[in-house]
Amino acid sequence: MTIQLDRRRFILSAAATSAIASAGALFPGISFGGWPKVTGNSGLVSWQKAPCRFCGTGCGVLVGVMDGRAVAVKGDPNCSVNKGLCCVKGYHSVQALYGSDRLTTAKIRKNGEMVEVPIKEALDLVAEKLQETRDKHGKDSVAIYGSGQWTIPDGYVASKLFKGCLGTNNVEANARLCMASAVTGFMTSFGIDEPMGCYEDIDHANVFISWGNNMAEMHPVLFSRMLANRERRTNVKIIDFATRMTRSSQASDTSILFKPQTDLAVANAICHEIIANGWVNWNFVNEHVSFHKGKTNIGYGTEDHFAFTDQDEAISFEEYKKFLEDYTPEKVERISGVSARDIKYLAALYGDPALKVTSFWCMGMNQHTRGTWINNLVYNIHLLVGKISTPGNSPFSLTGQPSACGTVREVGTLTHALPHGVVMNEHDRQMAAEIWEVPVENIDPKPTYHTVEMFRALDRGDIKFIWIQVTNPMVTMPNLKRYRNGAMKDDRFIVVSDIYPTPTTDIADVILPAAMWIEQEGMFGNSERRTQHFAQILDPPGEAMSDTWQIIEVARRLGFEKQFPWSQDNYIEKIWEEYRRFHSGPKHEMASYKILTERSGVQWPFVGGKETRWRFNPEYDPACTNGKTFDFYGKKDNRAWIWARPYEPAAESPDSEYPFWLNTGRVIEHWHTGTMTRRIPVLHNAVPSSYVELHPEDAAQLGVVNGEKVKIISRRGDITMPVQINGRGVPPRGMVFVPFFDESYLINEVTLDAFCPISKQPDYKKCAVRLEKA
Amino acid sequence: MMKQPEKGHKPVAHAAIALCLLGMFLTGTEAFSADTAYDDFDNQAKKRFAARRATPEIYTTADSGDRNLAGFYELRQYPGSPPRIPHPVDVTFSGNETDCLSCHGKGGYSAEFGKFVPVTPHPENTLCYQCHVPVVTEEPFVASNWQSMDPPRLGRSSLSSSPPTIPHSLQLRENCISCHTGPGAVAEIRVTHAARGDCRQCHVPAVEADGLSVFKRK
Questions:
Q1: Using an 8 Å Cβ cutoff, are A427 and A416 in contact?
Q2: What is the ipTM of this complex?
Q3: Which of B129, B139, B218 to mutate to test the interface with A (most CBs of A within 10 A)?
Q4: What is the pTM of this model?
Q5: Are A213 and A398 contacting, i.e. CB atoms less than 8 angstroms apart?
């Protein structure tokens, strides 16, 4: 057996050897290679703006281009998002273009083998198979599954082709797995999607409360901005409210741990305290808020064909107050493990009229079987005290992908959505039909499958053809085995557009090589309603083609030349100007193509040449017309809605057979499934493989030390992987955490495909597992 | 291939850089004036002066020979990229967010590592692991075709006796003395006259940059 050196002892021993180590070789056995140089290079670098390729923060980067290659990155000082600072992924992002296994030619499956073909031939086959499947099995047997990394034009042409021309609502995107609860949260509380605030809130708030979120690793640039504000101003506090200790916890002033799923109860207890202590802002509540309740005991969606429709019922403030009687701090302490004292402390921060409070959240609240509810409940807190839509007072839902907002939420690449509105609404269908120049009957008024149900339909055989672009579902689908087996069934036809080989291209019948990021022109939309244009800066390798153009090529082969008439010289501009018509008007006006090309992002609504920093506040938002201090114009009653939503347990909680919670997520170095970041040397060399975080006492009980392996077993599958104890994150006793970036350890074979019945977003943070020493 | 700039601002001789820069401003070529604005960062000059005042003179003039330029670039992926961490760090890397700054904030001799510590030019950024990551393995995931430019050449004086220009962007590196003075500095770029406080009195930025060129399909 090898001796396991723990890290601290390793540092001490390294320090002892360092006395004899020469400069640059402090780490014995490791030398650094520097970088290969472009031979005979001109030395002249041209710097061009783009939004970063990775998370939803939307940092502006300047890409250094020399002799046709991207050679360097700087933060864009002109971009208000990051003001010139990036994170380690952004600084090395351009290296993701140059992995030696880039897909540069199309491949099709012939007699079980993938063979290279000219891309034209592959596109012919895609169109032919799509047509054939549709003819044989009906319009809803074909589907497209995209991503929050689709550019806005990618998503727009996908929706236009499938919803407008092919007449199927089988359009979904992986943002269903990351942002759907945020959307339904906004829609139910405000009647209109996306945050009212912006990143400038960070420069005004006194208190930051982070809900189930590890911003230090997931949104590091915004976290740094909070730290800088805390340094600069005397009255700034950061509160970490989470289920495990993270780097964010360690950098925060206070860290409060709660038991998984009980954030629902704590949020209600905070509201209970706000009312009990007389901290309600009555001027605000009387003018701008109405009270509602919906259905309860709403299920978890683990069965096929699960359906749920919520029904709202107006209630009085008194009824709401009575509902909260179950949520006294003392009662909630017993459910949540959060002391009544800490609950009162949180309530006092929200309740103190002298403090500006910004709440941040991301996957912890969204990947939640009551994701819509917990979004509602945090809005409730802000609404009761009127801390919203003013600088520094901001309930802020962060996004994880560069264009989850821009493409999936604004273009509406979800089964129920259209670029403006929803398929169920006749007026919205008419608008789409008119702009798309298709008969209005083409657009089906009935939504079909949300993502989990779409892959279930593929397994059942209701869907036979699926085109997957810019995402890797064979790593990210929960309860993965079922969906991989389903996708591999004999008469299913899978088309995958991607830039590198992945577990998803492994199951493909056609692989289309895609242009990546700055190898094409496009736009992203970030977390704060900012649309960010990037020019094509580089040639895509080989026959790689933008996802937009792949869809256009197929659409034309299917006979839709009229709807897809654009030339390759300016198709992005033409698509943008067509798409922009959907959002015309003060609530969502978008900037023109020309303005987007000139600036490092523009926030919508963009009215009369002015960006809107805070929505619903007439000082900033031109869509406000009611003459009052605020106008929550998304809802018909012009009010924001407070919802009575109870605490209900998770779909699967630990029991005597499966005694641990399994929580999954990311690390700063890697992004999603690692197909890009693992090909960036600095990032891979820092975190080369996944691991399972375990509480030291649980590890001792199992008899494992750092680096030894444990088997993680759930009712769906198992996986054996190395243990990390007292690493960068420390779960409480009874919980394990696994980063999901590593395709060698497919943790989603273990997770559960339960979802929020309202948003249909799965919960990747909670299921029950047991551990065995491997 | 990228379109080469047609405008005459590609410096042909280094002696002409300053004139070219001036020329670009006067003719108002948007591309180049944008680049100079990015690279100037003079609004951050206070950092430089404050650091200079806070550092004892002996500490700006001492030399240890601990670091050289080759080692400096070995930690980077291109000139200006955030360097990797060449020594072991605790895996939590965050017991206290200022762990790194306890050494890299002001520098000094590290008994633990037996050498003088390089000083960060931007101690105001305290979330160090946002940009700097350790090295756990040297094995690549897959091979990379990454290539970048040569590092800037040193000693680019316009005249034989004139002060050299600044060949790198000042973004996040506004504080000259952190890298160019003291025993933790890289030997080749240590200044011989650390006692003088206003570096920009004599040294001006001259970053060679290509104009903004929009991609054109062939």
A1: no
A2: 0.86
A3: B129
A4: 0.90
A5: yes
